[in-house]
Amino acid sequence: MTRPPAEIGMPLEAVDTPSLLLDLDLFERNLQRLAAAVAGRGVRLRPHSKSHKCPVIALRQIALGAVGVCCQKVGEAEAMVYGGVPNVLVTNEIVGKSKIARLAALAKERAWIGVCADHPDNVRDLNEAALAYGVRLPVLVEVNVGADRCGVEPGEPAVALARQIAASPGLRFAGLQAYHGAAQHVREYAKRQDATESAVAKTRLTVELLGRQGLTCELVTGAGTGSYAFEAASRVFNELQAGSYIFMDADYAKNLGPTGAPATEFGHSLYIYATVMSRPTAERAVVDAGHKALSVDSGLPVVADMPDVEYVRAADEHGKLTLHDPNRRLDLGTKLRLIPGHCDPTVNLYDWYVGYRGNRVEALWPITARGAVL
Amino acid sequence: MTRPPAEIGMPLEAVDTPSLLLDLDLFERNLQRLAAAVAGRGVRLRPHSKSHKCPVIALRQIALGAVGVCCQKVGEAEAMVYGGVPNVLVTNEIVGKSKIARLAALAKERAWIGVCADHPDNVRDLNEAALAYGVRLPVLVEVNVGADRCGVEPGEPAVALARQIAASPGLRFAGLQAYHGAAQHVREYAKRQDATESAVAKTRLTVELLGRQGLTCELVTGAGTGSYAFEAASRVFNELQAGSYIFMDADYAKNLGPTGAPATEFGHSLYIYATVMSRPTAERAVVDAGHKALSVDSGLPVVADMPDVEYVRAADEHGKLTLHDPNRRLDLGTKLRLIPGHCDPTVNLYDWYVGYRGNRVEALWPITARGAVL
Q1: For testing the chain A interface, which of B292, B321, B336, B364 should be mutated: the one with the most A CBs within 10 Å?
Q2: Is the ipTM of this complex over 0.85?
């Protein structure tokens, strides 16, 4: 774990760079907005902790009504459980003996631990480990509802795998994982709704088919920040996995709302704090945040508060800025905030959130699942 | 620091995934090849540790004749010095009081610590810190030789800054940093040579101009894995900074040699080890290595040993593979090696190198400068 870039009580300008800033007011507003949007709609919220990798944040989500969190990796689940989170669904297939053993052992730690499967061999391995560790693991069938990544096909293939799970003495059939990742970033509202409704229809069909076989879905889980309102209204899904809503990255902010204007339900609360480390020409500045400080897989970061300054190119340790306004001052040593193109892999580069309110550092939260890829 | 994904003595297939594999035979051959290519040519080798972030590797480079290493960040320099590396050049501008103080303090640790500058205010700050800590810091002027990133322009602007450094009692003018990053990945050999020769000419001009003012360049440093042979032959550069040669990523492997065929001087020694975690269709497999296991900024990874299997899409924790050969078997749980598109930011995601020889794990080296962005 690297040194923290700040101390509690510091003014924001004293925070070292590059570092991960969290605007606590906006962050808390985002937390409350989703909790309020979901309340009373008959669906539970189980936010994805792959976005934040931090039990402190998970516990705040739970304090506002979330039933637990989702994880993608056993290492993330360990970080959550050891950080005090009692209810974790691994929304992913866990393959490999050592990982499955860790998962089964974790289920003995006074925590509810669920996992997904999409292959009979994996179900067999999960069952063996559960029996070896004396636990009964809840297992969801992952269904391919449009992302064409993992998952069995909806309908009969899902039912067949659910039957195998239900017949495994170490396992319990717990429902369906039906996440349509590709739908989350469809820009147009109506098209995003169409993509999600298609996923909902496949999920509904499968739930009904399972029901006719006496296989009840305790959890029907999916949805992300881009689509959650559709799944929430579906009367099929009973859990939502949205994760990015707490931070909002530059890419998600390009999604449009029902009026065609950018959706502004959630605000940007997460920033990369960076320092101007070179001012070679009037039009060019270089900041100390490049590929090792932010992920560019979903586009370059956006400079906050300075629409006339553009982040035009990332190198490993440098970010090149173009100043479009000749009157813009940006002296050597100036610190500025960048909105990451994609929050999740950006967070994974850091060991600390620097939470601030107004101009004062108020929190230093360790990102304990940073790098937990195993 | 995360758990190691392996134990010494394990067979390769038992290593957990995703993890960073280092083929020790190929790695050592790469180390020796560059050392041999440079020996007797009147230039020193100072490999860039931003690629490996590991003092164990730095000390191996030094054992083969390197004079020390380069770093980009103070945190990297600290990791190197505390890891036993006695000679570190920070090939970058260090801006901000706390970082400059750490740099000056580090220079008291029985290590030679050099740094670059491209701005009078930064030279002033470096001088103040050096005087406060009672050290004399060697400072190089960074010259823009074509990358249009940091650096003052060649010729008179460089001389003016060198004069300021030489006149600062806490500093010593130590030479020029002239790295042409943009030239490294020019595919065609002749064009890469042209780009580098243009950088060499600007550097030569500046060295001569400085010499006429009595300002001697103890170090004239630059070059990368793509261009080092040109700088080595220039009789202007006396240090080479190549870093990627030890690993070779998929992007660097696209560079062409003088005959027009891909340059094969250095081999791929670094891999992401990944597990097939889903086999939904005959043509599709999913591995457990996505954005949090490899950096896609310079393109997607390439599947080693299986030219008929293509890594077509990365998500945060998933990599989607397309199987182009219907006879290819790739069972659930199969482990395979991926050649990263870009090694440097990929290494920065991990805490451990798993070194192997043949089929046996032989080394677990901690990546102590992982995440050292400050």
Answers
A1: B292
A2: yes
